[in-house]
Amino acid sequence: MALLLGASSDTKVSRYESFRRSPSVTSVFAYEIIFKTPVRNLFAGAYDIVRRDVRARAGRLIKVLEPDARNPRTLRKLQLLRTVVGSPDNAAGCT
Question: Which of 7, 30, 37, 71 has the CB geometry, 3.0–4.6 Å to 2, for a possible disulfide?
Answer without folding.
Answer: 7
